Amino acid sequence: MEKLYNYINGSLTDSDSKEVIEVYNPFDQSIVGTVPKSTQEDVKKVLVSSQKAQKEWAKLTARKRGEYLKELAEILVCHKDELSILLTREHGKPIDQAKGEIDASVSFLRYAAESSRRIEGEIVTSDMDNEQTWIQRVPYGVTVGIVAWNFPLALAARKLGNSLVCGNSMIIKPPSETPLTVMKFAEYISKESSLPKGVLNFITGSGRVVGDALVRNSITKLVTLTGSTGAGLEVFKAAAENCVAVRLELGGKAPFIVMDDADLDKVVKCAITARFSNCGQICTCNERMYVHEKVYDEVVSKLIEETKKLVVGDPMQKGVFIGPKVNKAEVIKINEMVKKSIEQGGKVVLDTTPEHSLTDNGNWLYPQIVEVFDNQNELMQKEIFGPVLPIMKIKDFDQAIAYANDCEYGLSSYLFTNNAKNIMRMVNELEFGEVYVNRENGEMINAFHNGYKLSGIGGEDGKHGLEGYLQKKTVYMNYNY
């Protein structure tokens, strides 16, 4: 069993309370490890440490800061196998997908290191004689990264890389459900990194205590959160007390539109990957399918056939595509959603749930496909975040656009067609920050991951994600002396 500690000011340390959070394996409910149940006093220590370290850190050249990030990336490379196993044990994602998350984390850190030469300013024409005016990008100061449980290490790396290379210090608060891999990384940093003390801190605890205290403190200058819309709104309100800047990547309800001219084999392959990977626990997942009436029956038939082939089982075993859900609460929530959908007229056309689950205590939820007939159905409006795929028949592209936009979320969307006019209409009319055309999900590290409406404020990745960790300073230099 892993017993892990906070990483504060360069040292591994327990909480003042000495209490711990137990982390359970969703496969069989065995205890995988513990992390500190931190208090507000612990938060004060971590904030002071970050504030003290940030000034000197910002004085380093961006290139030097990038060298430290390369060092952190190499630590992940060296410990990929151990971290992958730990991630699978605490989260339940299949081991190959866990290895993919470690690889993604390395990429985030390396890309941030490369961005040390991408921090740029602007020269502005002045109205005054003998004057030079420029806009300089400077760090915020102390930043806080609050991480979701579905990709804990990758999301931490995505945030801390950009934050540190820009000259900020960062405090990472991992999720209580899956904190172990992130905190094991912190342990490796404490032993193997030359990173200056206090520049990067890790602290565990509940969102209500630790998260709230981090967000409300006046030392914090920027909060970046990936999580549920409910959590994001709470952070938004708390940050307002001190006018703290926020970057919120929140829930999604991606529409997956299939027109009658689409490559149906590709549609089915991408629909299954985009719905069932990571047990459906991805904010960009295929959350609701709209299929043209001319190809509807064929698509449903093919989806049923291919979904039956998915292997649900022990995530440590090769060939398993779907492991257990992260916790029991998620299983109960989704089962209740399906039940309500049926009450509203939905029809289950595939339920792969076996008579006996793989383990008695595991958080098992098996793939289902539900046919719905009303766009206001529970499964078409609320984020599922699990292996349940609702599907609905549409008569034309206008109806698809209208149904897709009739939702409070606006993160990702999909369209499968060979009609250039419909593609451009989707780009112009769909109210979503990401548009996937004729492909499954998976954003690029040098693009921009961004949501509209209740899916968030700000975004991550690429040059625009980097700029989210910088504020602007305008300088008017008059040299007429």
List the helices and strands and how they pair.
Layout: E1 2-3, E2 6-8, E3 11-13, E4 20-24, E5 31-36, H1 40-59, H2 62-78, H3 80-91, H4 95-114, E6 122-124, E7 131-139, E8 142-146, H5 152-165, E9 169-173, H6 180-192, E10 200-202, H7 207-216, E11 220-226, H8 229-239, E12 245-249, E13 254-258, H9 264-276, E14 286-292, H10 296-307, H11 328-343, E15 347-351, E16 368-371, H12 378-381, E17 388-394, H13 397-405, E18 409-410, E19 412-416, H14 420-429, E20 434-437, E21 449-450, E22 452-453, E23 456-457, E24 459-460, H15 462-467, E25 470-478
Parallel strand pairs: 1-5, 8-9, 8-11, 9-10, 11-12, 13-14, 13-19, 14-17, 16-17, 19-20
Antiparallel strand pairs: 2-3, 4-5, 6-7, 7-25, 12-23, 15-16, 18-22, 21-24
Strand arrangement within the widest β-sheet reads 15-16-17-14-13-19-20
Helix proportion of residues, in percent?
A: 25-40%
How many domains? The number is 2
> What structural class is derived from the secondary structure elements?
alpha/beta
CATH topological fold name of the largest domain: Aldehyde Dehydrogenase, Chain A, domain 1
Query: Superfamily at the CATH H level of the largest domain?
Result: Aldehyde Dehydrogenase, Chain A, domain 1
